[in-house]
Design goal:
Shape: globular
Helix content: 25-40%
Number of strands: 33
Structural class: alpha+beta
Oligomer: single chain
Length: 571
């Protein structure tokens, strides 16, 4: 391809609202353009990278014997109603009606459709099966941001395993875990496999693949010893024992005028340090008020609350709601003596005594609270969010908390969808059994953006060879230099003949502009046909390091082909 014919609308400046490096550089480099919030057009360079990422993912699936499908993006409501998710999935689902007023949805995932097809499997002898597709998904994100990292329309590889039992699912899950590790290695992404919440997908467990980046929206807790890693939505840690002193026989109510925070309660007479306070969070779970209790120096993790209670719609209660139901505003709330509301409490509070908490009267608190005596806890759950420096639950080494991009997620679905939708097989004894399923996803555009986040510098993108839009660019320093033009044309034909994806920059522009553009779009190798041509040489520059060497014109093509073969062999 000749640059003079290629549509690459590079920009000097990034969009004003762009924060993530990938967002800035993919727009500036002419890879993507926003149509409206959360919806992006892939321009020619962007589509080439997207296709390469897709093909690496496809290769990984084919290697484990997966079979490729292509399913509809628009689904009838009935199939989601049968699984129970039409009601449970929130506003993230795009819903519409056709001209006959039939309810439809744009697919945000395809468990239901694949399970419907799996109903045609009738015998255990046909199992296991692994099916996948690369299809567009639609999710009405409330805050699309960061370019391709959080969008409302995106391509995803979603695969599904179908087994007879849990042992089969464990095997399918493990080969997907291994396949994902290979895929991310080929994408030059250092992805960390971590324990994760299954969220709306349900099932018995899941693993996320996380890439460390300040542009991410997830935090993971990782042991410095390397033996433990989990999303903070699932992470736990060891806690040092707390000495609560001797048991108090007396619950004392004391005035706390103006005290509304944990920190303020630490400083007043009768108060207590944060680790000996009860933080009472009044939450509305699926429309019903619930009290969630954590230690004063801990934070409530909402996903843990959702996973522990099974709630779908979660929000903090409004101050007016707490006043009406409990008689006080936030800052003076507590669970002592509360009988008419469900109470869930974090394990760190179990068996604790001599604690302080709000008295459900503004400007009053209790001291001497004994959890077992004074609070009717309905359920003990893991609710707290871990913090950096806390000891690893496995080895005791300190945890580090890292901001990450989620690049893949694999789930053990179990039999939830098969039972709801009637996907059964006959086992060896002729007994009808529901199929056991797994679900496995990789967002193609998000993976592309993650590569851009990890591989860039202050001059632009630095694509790994495996996903670069072109492997080599030949830059003619001056189109008025006939010898340079002739050398470039010769190399262009030679590299094309050897299978190199080569771009010839034949624009009538200053050399500095061409160099800047090639660095911005991140092409791994640049051959410059300039003054050195007079000596029978060209300059060969590696984008990653910026190192430049002079190479004979007759040797340049073979040298680049060898370098690229070496890079390709790593993937």
């Amino acid at each position: 391809m000749r640059w003079s014919r290629l549509f690459v609308p590079t920009l000097r400046d990034a969009p004003a609202d762009a924060e993530a490096a990938s967002h800035k550089l993919l727009v500036r480099g002419g890879f993507i353009r926003q149509l409206h919030a959360g919806h992006y057009s892939l321009l020619p360079l962007g589509l080439r990278v997207h296709d390469k990422v897709e093909n690496i993912v496809r290769q990984g699936m084919d290697e484990i014997g997966a079979q490729e499908f292509l399913l509809p993006a628009m689904h009838p409501a009935s199939i989601w109603q049968r699984s129970g998710r039409w009601e449970s999935v929130g506003p993230e689902m795009f819903r519409l009606q056709d001209r006959k007023e039939a309810d439809l949805a744009l697919g945000m995932t395809h468990e239901e459709v694949f399970t419907e097809i799996a109903r045609e499997i009738t015998s255990y002898r046909s199992l296991p099966q692994i099916w996948y597709q690369i299809q567009w998904k639609f999710r009405d994100e409330p805050r699309p941001k960061s370019g391709l990292l959080r969008v409302r329309e995106f391509a995803m590889k979603d695969s599904y395993s179908f087994d007879l039992d849990d042992a089969g699912l464990d095997h399918s899950f493990e080969i997907h875990r291994e396949a994902y590790a290979r895929i991310f290695e080929r994408l030059s992404l250092d992805a960390i496999a971590v324990q994760a919440s299954s969220g709306m997908m349900g099932g018995t467990g899941s693993v996320e693949f996380m890439v460390a980046s300040p542009a991410g929206e997830d935090d993971i807790a990782r042991c410095s010893g390397g033996g433990y890693a989990a999303n903070v939505e699932r992470a736990t840690s060891q806690l040092a024992p707390v000495d609560d002193g001797d048991s108090s026989d007396e619950l004392t109510r004391f005035p706390t005028p103006g005290v509304r925070t944990i920190a303020a309660l630490e400083t007043v007479e009768g108060g207590a340090p944060a680790h000996r306070q009860i933080k009472t969070m009044v939450m509305v779970l699926d429309g019903s008020m619930t009290l969630a209790l954590v230690r004063g120096d801990h934070q409530l993790n909402l996903q843990k609350l959702a996973d522990g209670t099974g709630a779908v719609d979660i929000r903090p209660a409004e101050p007016a709601e707490t006043l009406e139901r409990l008689g006080a505003h936030p800052g003076s709330l507590g669970a002592v003596g509360v009988k008419d509301l469900p109470i869930v409490a974090d394990h760190a509070l179990r068996g604790r005594r001599n604690l302080a908490t709000g008295a459900n009267t503004d400007d009053w608190h209790y001291s001497g609270v004994d959890i077992d005596r004074d609070i009717a806890v309905d359920e003990w759950l893991d609710l707290r969010e871990v913090s950096a420096g806390e000891p690893c639950v496995k080895c005791g080494q300190p945890l580090e908390v890292i901001r990450c991009i989620e690049t893949g997620h694999i789930f053990k679905l179990g039999r939830r969808y098969a039972e709801a939708m009637g996907a059964t097989v006959l086992d060896a004894d002729g007994v009808e059994r529901p199929i056991t399923m797994g679900s496995y996803g990789i967002g193609i555009g998000r993976a592309m953006a993650a590569v851009a986040e990890v591989h860039h510098d202050d001059r632009g993108l630095v694509w790994p060879v495996a996903v670069a839009p072109y492997e080599t660019v030949i830059t003619v320093a001056s189109m008025r230099d006939e010898a340079a033009v002739a050398a470039a044309e010769r190399l262009y034909r030679e590299l094309q003949g050897s299978g190199v994806e080569v771009l010839l920059d034949d624009r009538d522009a200053r050399a500095g502009v061409k160099f800047a553009d090639s660095e911005l779009v991140g092409i791994p190798w640049r051959i410059t046909a300039g003054r050195a041509v007079a000596d029978g040489e060209v300059e060969l520059t590696e984008r990653t390091t910026g190192d430049t060497q002079r190479v004979g014109i007759g040797d340049a093509g073979a040298r680049v082909a060898t370098l690229l073969d070496s890079a390709r062999s790593l993937t």
